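The freezer alarm interrupted the setup, so I double-checked each line after restarting. Inputs confirmed:
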Amino acid sequence: MFKNTLLLLLFILASACADETPEPVDTIASLRDRMESTKVEKKESFWSTANTLEERQQKIEKIIEAGDPVMVIDMHDMGGWEFDELLKDPFPNYIRALDGKEIVTRGFMMPDIDFEHIQKFHLVRSLYSCCFGAPPQLNEILRVELTNPEGMDYTYNTIEVRGILRVVFEMEDGLVEDLLRLENATYRVLDFEDPGAPIDFDAATGFDGVVPSGESY
Amino acid sequence: MNIIKIVVRNVKRRRLSTSLTAASVALGVALFVAIGVLRQASEQGFQRTAGICDTIVGAKGDSLQLSLNTLYHMGFSTGNISLASFNEIRNQEGVSWAAPIALGDSYRSHRIVGVSSEFFEQVKIAGSGNLSFSEGRSFDFSTEQFVEEHEHLFGEQQAGHDHEDDEHFSYQAVIGANVATKLLLKVGDKIVPTHGVEKSTERHDDAASEIVGILAATGTPIDRAIYIPIIAYYKMEGHATDHEAELEGTRDARGISAIMLSTKSGYYRQQIYRNINNRLDAMAVFPSIEMRKLFKLIGSGDIVLRIISLLVVVVALIGVLVSLYNAMGARRKEFAILRALGASRRSIITIVSLESAVIAFMGAVFGVLLASLAALVLATELHKFSGVTINVSLAVEEIYLIAIVTLAGALAGLIPALEAYRTEAAKQLSSNV
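Predicted 3D structure, all chains:
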C-alpha cells in the first residue's frame, strides 16, 4: 500500500518535471485569435483626469444630461471654481444643478477629534495631498452625514459614499459653513487608492503620524 | 446515573489538585483580560482628555511631548512661543477660542498652570460639559487682560519688569479636585509655588497665591493641576527677568509655553494647522492623533504581552491535562466499577472531559474576576499618576473568552478521557480480586 502510494507520487513528480510539448508554430490568424482572447480589459478608473475648469464643467454637465438616478461624480470635478464669499449665490450653475441629486463619490475621511462612531465627517479627494500638499479649499471638501446613527470608525482607506448632495452657502459667526454636504449617506470602505499619492506610496507607514496609522479604528 | 453529580463529586474530591490547576488557568486568563481591558480603558481615558481642545500650539519640537506636557502635565515643555505669535495665531480666521498656557512651576508635585479665565469658561470635557466649581469661583483674568498686561510689562516702551506693580497684584489660584482632597486644601488657603516641575526647594515666596476656587472632578489631569492667572508667571521673581538665558537664545523667557486652540472643523481647521506648521517658530498638533500614535506604539508591546498571556493559558490547560492523565492510574478501578454498573464508554469519556472543562471554566471565571480587580487597582494607580480616570468594565468578549477556555479545557480532557475509555472493566476488577 505504502509502496504503491510512493510510486504514484514519484510518477506525478516526474510528469511535472518533464518538458512541456512544444507549441505549434503560430500562424497570423491564430496569433490574432490568441491576442483577442487574452486582451486584458482596461479597468476604467473612478478618478477624473479633467485638467481645466472647462473640462470639469463639461464632465458634470454630461453626467447631469445623462440623467442617471444616481450620479457617479469625482469630487475633483466639483471643485476648482473660484469661491467668492461676497456673492449672494457663489456657485456656478453646473454645481448648483447638482443640489438635491443622489450622488456616489469617493475620497478620504479627514482625521478629527473622534475616531470611533463617527456620524459626521469631512471627505477629501486625496488624503495625501491634504496632508503633504496644499490643504483642500472650501469647495473641495464634502461634509458627509451618515444615515446610521452608530456612524463608522475612522479609516485611512478610500471610502465610497452615497447620498443626497446639498449645495448650500451659509455663514455663521463670519465663517463659511461647509458648501457641499452629503445627507442621508451610506458608505463602503475600499482598498487604499489615493489619486494624489505617488504610485509606490504605502499608506500604512507613509503618513508617519500625520494621519493615524493602522488599518482602521 | 447522573454524570453531572459524578463530575462534581470527582472535582470536589480532588480539591487541592483542582484548585491548583484552576488557579494556573485563572492566572493566564487574568493576564490576558487585564492587559486588554486596561489598554482599551486607558486609551479611552486619554482620548477623553485629548478632546479638551482640538489643536495645541507650541514651540517646534516633539509633537507628543507638546501634547503630554500641555494636556497631561507630563514631561517638559518644548519651549516658549512669543506673545506676538500668540496674537497672530489666535486672530486667524476659524479660531473659536485660544487659551494661553504657561507651565514650569509646581506645588508639592502638582503642576502649576498659568491660564486666563477663558480656560474655565471654554474647556469642555466629553460627556460632562463645561468645567464647574465644587467650591468658590474662577479668578477674573481674561486673555485680553493678559495681552494688555504683558505689553505693559515687556512692551517696547518698558525698560523691564516693574516690581512696583507687583505689590498691588493679588496672587490667586484655582485648584483641581484631586489637589484639594490629597493636600487637604480649601478656599482661602494659600499655596507657595516652587520653581520647576521636579522636587525643588526654590520657593516663590513672593507669589503666595490664595485659593479662590476648587474645580469639580473631571476624571482628567485637570484634577491634579493648580491654575493661576497666567500673568502671575511673569511677575514671579526670576521668571521673566532671565535676560541671560534670553540673550543666549535658549528660551524666550517672556513667551508662553503653549496655546490650546478650538477651531472650526473641516476647512478652517486644516488651514490653521497648515498655516501654523508653516511658521518657523511654532507647530500645531492634533492631540487626539498624538494619543492614537502613542497607543499604537504601546499596542505593539500589548500584542506581545497578550500572546504571552495566551501561552500561559495554554500551559495551564496542559497542566489540567497532565493532572487528569496522572490521576488515571489510580482511577482505573473507579471507571471499571462505573462500567460494571452500566456506564457506557461514551459516558466515561464525557465524565473525564467534563471534569477538565469544569476546571477550565472555574479558572476562566476566577481569572476574569481577578483581572477586574487588578484592572481596578491599576486604574487607581494610573489616576494617581496621570489624573486620567479610566472606566474599567468587562465586555461581552470576556464571556466568549470563558466559553473558549472551557471548550479548550474539554478538548484537553480528551486525552485522559481516551485513556479512561480504554479501561477494560473485567480486567481491572479481576486484577483487584
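Quick read of the result. The mean pLDDT of chain B is 84.
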